[in-house]
Amino acid sequence: MHEFSLAIEVINLAQREAQKNMAVSIQEITIEVGDLSGVEADAFESALELLVKDSILENSTINIVRTSGKGKCNACDIEFEMNQRMTTCPKCQCFPSKISGGEEFRVISLMVE
Amino acid sequence: MCETCGCGESGEVKIHDRNHNHDHVHDHEHTHDHDHTHDHGHTHTHGHDSVLFTQTHSLAPKKVIGLNLDILSDNNSLASVNRRYFEKRNVLSLNLVSSPGSGKTTILEKTIKALISTQKIFVIEGDQQTVLDADRIEKSGAPAIQINTGSGCHLDARMVDSAIKKLELENDSILFIENVGNLVCPALFDLGEFKRVVVISVTEGEDKPLKYPYMFQSSHLCIINKSDLLPYVDFDKDKTMEYARSLNPNLEFILVSAKTGEGFDLWFEWLTKQTSALISSRKE
């Protein structure tokens, strides 16, 4: 449910950046939602679509880019893809000792005019 | 306000005075005196605007602005400001998180009654509605400010910023921030705390860490409450610890009963340890 708070943050951010760049409107916004960011991408996208009414993003195309992370197995050291926080090693089912990537939740770009 | 889940916008958040009048939180309001340097507690890349001009069939040129802006950067910036405010005043700030009913408020009541004669304590309470918890805390002997989030599901740094001024925090005190009862959403929102304490109870089952990994990953101490009920429930403490440590190897554990007082000596020892740790970190 915090996805609604986050959607509001994105709308505010877009408004600020548009103003900063003296843009009249935003054609497209591209947002990265990492699989390990703690943000549920579908819920966030739904929230954003619901909340953009009467905002600067009302008629913008919303691109959600999902990225996965990589974990390094605690036991056997192999690297494996993680698309959720509780992914375990495919070889020995252990948890990762180190995680990289997949944790970003950011606005990548705006296309404005 | 959201029509689907009713989750709130900032206008409906209420910060009660200690005499229960309330103010509304507004965006971008810094209500007390802060150092306004905005370095971040988290490493995120900040935007370097890179601009590309593309001419399309429309008369107005479109441009792509590369931002790479962390969406939580606003909250994180304000959290860093809160953190520095606490450090400057040697205030040990602790963010208490849990699902509803784990016993956070009861633990706080007992802690305050035991320590208040020798330790200054302040409390910020977060709930959707009512001032019930702040009232309980005040009856225990510590000043408390109640934040009502309306239909919101977590506290954020802005709310804590607003509450602090009403509290008139003193130097060398402990500030407990009791978050909204929710093991999901508060995990993402840094409040500026020194340490985060997740409270679970033995009646909730040992698989909480697996079900709510972000909360356990981001916490420093896990208090397992209601140890007095262990004879009546199936709860494997070692399994809980194993699950949690697979996510967060440095997570510490204390088993307590807010009803009988069992384990509170260890909890007070941990608080003392954190007080020293805060002083050491200030010297760095």
Question: Can you describe this structure?
Answer:
The complex is a heterodimer of chains A (113) and B (284). Chain A has a single domain (2-112), classed as hypothetical protein PF0899 fold (2-Layer Sandwich), CATH 3.30.2320.80. Helices cover 27% and strands 34% of the residues of chain A. Chain A is built from two helices and six strands, in the order H-E-H-E-E-E-E-E. In chain A, the strands form two sheets. In chain A, strands 2-1-6 form a three-stranded mixed sheet, covered by helices on one side. In chain A, strands 4-3-5 form a three-stranded antiparallel sheet, with no helix packed on it. Chain B is of the alpha/beta class. Chain B has a single domain (75-283), classed as 3-Layer(aba) Sandwich (Rossmann fold). Helix content of chain B is 31%, strand content 21%. Chain B contains eight helices and eleven strands. Chain B has helices spanning 73-88, 104-115, 132-140, 157-167, 208-211, 213-217, 237-247, 264-283, and strands at residues 14-16, 22-24, 50-54, 62-70, 92-98, 121-127, 144-148, 174-178, 195-201, 221-225, 252-255. In chain B, helix 1 (73-88) runs parallel beside helix 4 (157-167). In chain B, 44% of the residues are buried. Chain A binds chain B through residues 1-2, 4-6, 8-10, 12-13, 17, 21, 23-24, 27, 31, 38-39, 46-47, 50-51, 74, 85-86, 95, 104-113, and chain B through 2-5, 7, 9-10, 27, 44, 47, 49, 58, 60-72, 74-75, 152-154, 156, 184-185, 187-189, 210, 213-214, 217, 246-247.
CATH topology of chain B: Rossmann fold
CATH topology of chain A: hypothetical protein PF0899 fold
Q: What is the quaternary state of this protein? A: heterodimer
Please give the share of residues in helix of chain B: 25-40%
Broad structural category of chain A: alpha+beta
CATH superfamily of chain B: P-loop containing nucleotide triphosphate hydrolases
Name of the CATH class of chain B: Alpha Beta
Q: Helix count of chain B?
A: 8
User: What is the gyration radius of chain A calculated from CA atoms?
Assistant: 17 Å
Give the distance, in angstroms, between the N- and C-terminal Cα atoms of chain A: 32 Å
- Biggest sheet overview of chain A: 3 strands, mixed
Which CATH-level-2 architecture of chain B? 3-Layer(aba) Sandwich
What value does the average pLDDT of chain A take?
93
The amount of beta strand of chain B, in percent, is 15-25%
